[in-house]
Design brief:
With 263 residues, the chain is an all-alpha fold. It contains 13 helices and 2 strands. InterPro entries: NHR-like_dom_sf, NR0B1/2, Nucl_hrmn_rcpt_lig-bd, Nuclear_hrmn_rcpt, Nuclear_receptor_repeat.
């Protein structure tokens, strides 16, 4: 599309100052074992899921997530039916589904999350900080680390995917179902997009019937995976994987830049 080529040319001129470049630039990598950790919620404490947590090795995990995001958007760009949509329709779809697609990609790439409890400022520190800044308005967007419960939802989703041993084709059909969501406000090609989502589901069902003939419940299990994605908050994903590297990030701006680049 002409608009994509124009945006790409503009991006070339500011490559080293771009958001994408900032995410993917080299970091000193720390050695980290891939083993998963269990149960983040506090034992015997009903408020354990509200404790704040952070990535144990943020540069390693964030770089892995950034690579998955690039791979995910490359997958989206290579879907012919997606390319046939107007650019504004593409943006509506990507802005809505980037987080669930990213988490599906994390599952497919077997990215494990190591987290540690994050120290939060005390009530007194918050009061003093507020008084020191006077009447300044708080910065927009989420400013506190994700809770243990939010991270556990992501870990639970990854574990569910790994337990099902989802194949590459199944991941592709699941991504197609997530990508082509006809119920989003602002879409004009709703019938076309609804048809694409239906085709993705039918292709998944047909694949499961041919490959997993002895597991008649597999298609339903894969749809449970899709339902679990609804509990994952896009703001949590942005806070967890992108703020540690590039600070306060406007995901819409970053997605637009990446969508208009030849990844």
């Amino acid at each position: 599309m002409a608009c994509l080529e124009r945006c790409h040319c503009c991006a070339d001129g500011r490559r080293h100052g771009s958001i994408l470049y900032s995410i993917l630039k080299s970091h000193e990598q720390a050695a980290e074992g891939p083993g998963p950790r269990r149960g983040l919620a506090g034992r015997g404490c009903s408020c354990g899921s509200q404790r704040r947590v952070a990535l144990k090795s943020p540069q390693v995990a964030c770089k892995a997530a950034s690579a998955v995001l690039v791979k995910t958007l490359r997958f989206v760009q290579n879907v012919p039916c997606f390319q046939e949509l107007p650019l504004d329709e593409q943006l509506v779809l990507v802005r809505s589904c980037w987080a669930p697609l990213l988490v599906l990609g994390l599952a497919q790439e077997r990215v494990h999350l190591e987290t540690v409890e994050s120290a939060e400022p005390s009530m007194l520190q918050r009061i003093l900080t507020t008084r020191r800044h006077g009447e300044h308005a708080p910065a927009p967007g989420r400013q506190h680390p994700p809770s243990a419960g939010e991270i556990q939802a992501i870990k639970g989703f990854l574990a569910k995917c790994w337990s099902l041993d989802i194949s590459t084709k199944e991941y592709a059909y699941l991504k197609g179902t997530v990508l082509f969501n006809p119920d989003l406000p602002g879409l004009q090609c709703t019938q076309y997009i609804e048809g694409l989502q239906r085709e993705a589901q039918e292709a998944l069902n047909e694949h499961v019937r041919l490959i997993h003939r002895g597991d008649q419940a597999r298609f339903a299990k894969l749809n449970v995976v899709l339902s679990l994605l609804r509990s994952i908050n896009a703001n949590v994903i942005a806070e967890l994987f992108f703020r540690p590297i590039i600070g306060s990030v406007n995901m819409d701006d970053m997605l637009l830049e990446m969508l208009c680049a030849k990844l």
